[in-house]
Amino acid sequence: MANKQKDGIKAVNQDFSKYDQVDKKQTYKLVEDEATDQFDEDFKIRTCDMRKFFEGGIEGKKEFAKELGEALESIGFAILTGHGVDTNLYKEGQQKTARIFEDISYEERMKYKSERHGSVNQGYFPMKTTTIIHPDLVEGWVFCRRAFDLNNDPNYNERDFWPEGGYEPFFRQLIQSHEALVLPIMQSILRYLGTDPHLYDEKLTGTNFGFRLNYYPPINNQDDASGAGRMLGHEDVDLFTILPAQEVEGLQVLNRENGKWIRLNAEPGSIILNTGDYMQRITNDRLPSTTHRVSKPTTKTLFTKPRISLPMAIYIWEDEILEVLPSLDNPKYPPISAVKFHTNITSKYYGDDYAKEVK
Questions:
Q1: How many whole angstroms separate alpha carbon 41 and alpha carbon 43?
Q2: Cα angle at 129 between 123 and 130, to 5 degrees?
Q3: How far apart are CA 178 and CA 198, in angstroms?
Q4: CATH class for domain 2-350?
Q5: What phi and psi values does residue 115 have, to the nearest 5 degrees?
Q6: What is the pTM of this model?
Q7: Which of 125, 183, 117 minimizes the C-alpha distance to 318?
Q8: All structural domains of the chain with their residue ranges
């Protein structure tokens, strides 16, 4: 892994294009490069008010769909306000995440080291192990639906998934709040594309997801000098990702039109939404899976402060089929199972054997 990660610091995305399952013409270095990186100070990620969907009747739904669709088609990112999620959950979620990574011992965390279940690697990722191609300066913990007691299952055991009691009930509130946004978002996207807004209602009710706690520790001098970044440039694999705005800067989005990076600093309490590979596939490239990364802070005094993010990736179940929406002409992609699509892509991060079918 070490040699691959050393090479990954110098790599560009096209070095790994054989893993792509959708067309990605953009070329970029996986990590920050002060000598060549350029920044787009003019492009503004669009803010879309979800109150139009929830309170505006059918005309409000149409207006919100147009605004959201245009934003996503343009850049693959949008900022959501008026979403109705209690933002105190975000503040407390960051505090609880910090306690998990700062107060629970490494040895205890390693008892939950990530393993593949279905398409998704679930569990704890130690520092620099998010991917085999780059030593990302982040620890992570992925919880999918099975990690939450969502149906009062008498056989559910919190400690099978969580290192201490009490975390699951809190984070269950957060993921349920985000689940309430899944259908409004998807219905709006489908409406924008001229498809039945309810086409995915069944697939996305009680669907698969990956809820990730990201903990970026303070950056020391050695890691700063190594050339590693907090998270390499990448595209998400999913339909879309729901990401509460973070307190510490770092999220950057690639503008494919000019090859420049956009620094995305959303207002506290808002949600950053971005589309992934699943979405690009079913929309026949209309809604792109847009490249983004997490950079070191521009202000070095922030190097001493940890960065915490709580993204929730929305998938469909592994046995579902991804196919271009019926409203879109001249489909570029044939139907493909979600598990094959997902693991073919993520074998880039976990090794080629990851794409092999699990019996």
A1: 6
A2: 70
A3: 18
A4: mainly beta
A5: -140, 155
A6: 0.96
A7: 117
A8: 2-350
